[in-house]
Design goal:
- The structure is a single chain.
- The protein is built from eleven helices and ten strands.
- It has a domain at 54-78 and 177-264: Rossmann fold, CATH 3.40.50.300.
- α5 (120-127) packs across α6 (139-146) and α5 runs parallel beside α7 (161-174).
- Residues 1-9 and 257-265 have low confidence and may be disordered.
- By secondary structure, the protein is an alpha/beta fold.
- It starts with a helix and ends in a 9-residue tail after the last helix.
- The protein binds adenosine-5'-triphosphate (ATP).
- Residues 38, 43, 61, 63-69, 110 line the site of adenosine-5'-triphosphate (ATP).
């Protein structure tokens, strides 16, 4: 199994230590050979992706690199076409998003979905429905954490963009994930909101693994200890966050591919 993780079809050896990979196999999320295509366009072709407990793993890359597709496949919101996903040693490739959420894989969305008829509190209740009898935290406590306690009775659809993002995070947290997948959580946030987000994410328990897709490098710098760089659906490189962020080739990738100048922020 280890060999699979050390070989990349593009010839880029992963820098993940075998001990990390072993940990992920026993008690984490492991994807191997994920390929995804829309029609004839292959948008993801990833040899391996591992998330061990407590990881703070950022996935970066220019627009269209396949980052959201990867999260969708890990969360089960998109069906796996090729490849395999295991979680805590159990094959979950064919399991749907609701099953995965109940089992501990939570996510937020690049474009949060808001139910027009539900209050903020009810949305969080829905997120934690499978833990309603023995929640680690009540929905009201989760709202307190994300700073939305004063908005509990408000219709979710009336929230500002920044508050919708916080609600999306609250819904995910109410599900008591062991792996939290975050799709551009800082997109469109003000500086104050971003700083609040960093406080919230920085305060997450150490056992919770976080996978962060993000263009804002300051957010990545604050949270990630490991970075995978995707380009055209493939793993361009991965490694410790400081090393990858300092790599001139990574900055060039953003600028050269017509992405924003995120690598410099
Ligand atoms: N439903 C779809 N139908 C066709 N093509 C799609 C669909 N969803 C995504 N794509 C394409 O797949 C590729 C990867 O998209 P994806 O959203 O995963 O990239 P990304 O790295 O998350 O980009 P961004 O940073 O812009 O959000 C893009 O070329 C995108 O246009």
């Amino acid at each position: 199994m280890k060999t699979v993780h050390r070989i990349d079809p593009a010839g880029v050896p992963s820098q993940r230590l075998p001990s990390d990979i072993d940990r992920a196999h026993g008690n984490g999320l492991v994807a191997t050979g994920l390929r995804h295509a829309y029609g004839r366009l292959t948008v993801l072709d990833l040899d391996a992706f591992t998330v061990a407990p407590g990881d703070r793993h950022a996935v970066i890359g220019p627009n269209g690199a396949g980052k959201s597709t990867l999260l969708d496949l890990l969360a089960g919101t998109t069906r796996v076409q090729a490849g395999a996903i295991t979680y805590n040693g159990q094959v979950i490739t064919r399991r749907g998003a609701a099953w995965r959420a109940r089992t501990g894989i939570g996510r937020t969305f690049q474009h949060p979905i808001v139910y027009p008829d539900l209050t903020v509190l009810d949305c969080v209740r829905m997120g934690g429905w499978h833990h309603r009898h023995h929640p680690d935290r009540t929905p009201a406590e989760v709202l307190e954490i994300v700073g939305l306690a004063d908005h509990a009775g408000q219709l979710a659809v009336t929230l500002s963009h920044g508050h919708r993002r916080m609600l999306d995070l609250a819904v995910a947290l109410a599900g008591q994930p062991r792996v939290l997948l975050l799709d551009e959580p800082a997109a469109g946030l003000t500086d104050t909101e971003t700083s609040r987000l960093l406080d919230i994410l920085g305060g997450l328990p150490g056992w919770m693994a976080v996978v962060l897709v993000e263009h804002h490098m300051d957010v990545v710098a604050a949270l990630a200890d490991w970075i995978t760089v995707l380009h055209n659906g493939r793993r361009r490189t991965d490694g410790p966050a400081d090393t990858v962020r300092a790599d001139p080739a990574v900055a060039a990738l953003y600028l050269g591919a017509g992405g924003d100048d995120a690598a410099h922020r």
